[in-house]
Amino acid sequence: MDFSITLVNLAGSVALLLWGVHMVQSGVQRALGARLRSLLGIALRNRFQAFLAGIGVTAILQSSTATGLMVTGFAAGGLVDLVPALAVMLGANVGTTLIVQLLSFDVAEIAPALILLGVLMFRRASAAPRDFGRVLIGLGLLLMALRQFIGLLDPFEDAPSLRLLLGAVATQPILDVILAAGLTWAAHSSVAIVLLAMSFAAKGVVPPHAAFALVLGANLGTAINPVLEGGAGDDPAARRLPMGNLVNRIIGVAAALALLPVLGPWLVTVDPDDARVVADFHTGFNLVLALVFFPLLGPYAALLCRFMPARVAAADPGQPLYLDAAAIEVPMVALGAATREALRMADALESMLQGFRDALQRPDRRQLSELRRLDDVLDKLNTAIKSYMTALPGESMTDADHRRVVEILAFATNLEHAGDIVDKGLFGIIARQAKRGLVFSRDEAEELRRIADRLMANLRSAAALLVTGDERAAKLLVAEKEVFRTFESEATAAHFAGLRDGQPKHAETGTLHLDALRDLKRVNAHLVGAAAYPVLESKGDLLPSRLR
Fold it and tell me: Are 349 and 527 in contact (CB under 8 A)?
């Protein structure tokens, strides 16, 4: 076979291997993602439980990166201490070795059966069998890719040029580590790179000690991704966990490289099967590193906090804080991040409403100009959330995930429109009032303040609804639309009654008062559309029209 064609086939085998790993991960995330995240959150109470949870969750997800993103979100939000978070990462690194151990045995014969069973399950209508079928198809493709890769190497294992190239690489363990780390970073899968190292060792293409160095590089590369691609922003505290895991890996890899001339020959004598000994080295490295660092997590976390203190300076409120780019491949984590960002929009809108309420009594053009900048914050956050949501991989998402995307986008869009109403409508009324020297009557100002207070309470209810999805709370929020319609109709009747009685103060400020009431009602309608309607629609409680 032509060498160039063989290279293409080898690249195709590697691509098939990576796709198989991706299918396994996406299938598990779709089937168990939310429950795994909940389990991980419960387990983060002490370092021992966290370590075991890291092993279990990563063994199921087959991605220490996905586990790391979950716990990084907890740690960055202050929901969990750094010590159990680091313990989770130690467990996650051990968890990645379990599938490597399984695949180190000759199980390629069952690949067609796995794919057949997976396709049959994938064609089922219900979601759970489809997701599990995706996992089985991914495992089958992974095993087939490994067998094809090894078969393609057979004609070339004795080629002088290949022997010369790999022999040069094999004599430089540091070069092996750098090469494998780079491949792992590019492939986003340490499992795939370790499996490739096992294949090279099994065919004798590289000696065992070179395969061990490749394994060390894969372990290092998997810790680089969260550091380079994480969305921690400028706050050093949010980088403590990924940086702590990377430093942990670097220390372990450096120590293992120093001991490799002694450990390598001994491991080969203990287990003569080259593929098995590579898998055992991978497992042993992570277990020893966990045993060494586990008792030192307390002082290690204190050291990380000392060198990476929390940022005190206030950040640009228009910049997203939680939209972690690395979490896009893990929708259950990305949706939680987008929810937190949407809640920041609710806080910004509440500040605008509070500013309007205060300005009713003390109009201040300078303060009004500062408040109007919050509308730009809403615009930026809404744009960032939309871009983030549209980048999520559809094949890794469940129907519930897709519904959640719609809910978050509806919430963000409605709050951005509500901010426009406050900026151009309510703040415009305050500006005209100050320019003309008009003052609301005591009754008018008190009514507007009372309605603004009620609107802010509704905003807090809408934010809570985005998190809880409670049907009863949604119905209560929808009922507020009738309350605000009553406010408007009563105020309109009172305004025209005053005009008929010949009261000039109603002619001066009454129109502005009614405009403010209408804008407050419009903002309330957006709050209902943002949070209540999506919940009621999902429950089948929302009518398509109010017409009889």
Answer: no
Whether the Cβ atoms of residue 62 and residue 99 lie closer than 8 Å to each other: yes
Phi-psi region at 62: left, alpha or beta (left = phi > 0; alpha = psi -120 to 50): left
d(CA 495, CA 23): 65
Interatomic CA distance for residues 116 and 124, integer angstroms = 13
What residue has token string 């004599």? 171
Residue 387 token pair: 């871009």
Determine the Cα–Cα distance for residues 458 and 365; give it in Å rounded to an integer.
27
Mean pLDDT is highest, among 117-131, 200-214, 428-442, 448-462, for 448-462
b vs e for 128-164, b when ≥16 Cβ sit within 10 Å of the residue's Cβ? ebbbbbbbbbbbbbbbbbbebbbebbeebeeeeeeee
Pick the more confident residue, 110 or 485. 485
| d(C-alpha 165, C-alpha 247), whole Å | 31
Q: How far apart are the first and last CA of the chain?
A: 75
CA 504 to chain CA mean position, Å: 58
Distances 218 to 120, 125, 288, 322, 461 between C-alpha atoms, Å: 35, 39, 16, 28, 47
Nearest-angstrom CA–CA distance, 365 and 432: 10
Both tokens of 331, joined, read 């929708």
- Is the Cα dihedral 453, 459, 465, 468 positive or negative? negative
Indicate the helix (H) or strand (E) that contains 383: helix 365-390
CA dist., res. 152 & res. 161, Å (int): 16
Closest CA to 326 of 80, 29, 67: 67
pTM, entire model? 0.61
CA distance 189 to 96: 10
Residue 342's pLDDT band, with cuts at 50, 70 and 90, is: very high
- Written as six digits, the tokens of 1 are 């076979």
On whether the CB atoms of residues 314 and 437 are closer than 8 A, the answer is no
Nearest Cα residue to 7 out of 106, 134, 153, 128: 153
**Would you say 169 and 175 are in contact if contact means Cβ atoms under 8 Å apart?**
yes
Average pLDDT over every residue of 101-126 = 78
Q: At which residue do the structure tokens 């990380």 appear?
A: 304
DSSP letter string, 384-449:
HHHHHHHTS-GGG--HHHHHHHHHHHHHHHHHHHHHHIIIIIIHHHHHHHHHHT----HHHHHHHH
CA separation, residue 133 to residues 128, 142, 146 (Å): 9, 14, 20
Under DSSP, the state recorded for 154 is G
CA dihedral of 226, 230, 235, 241, whole degrees rounded to 10: -20
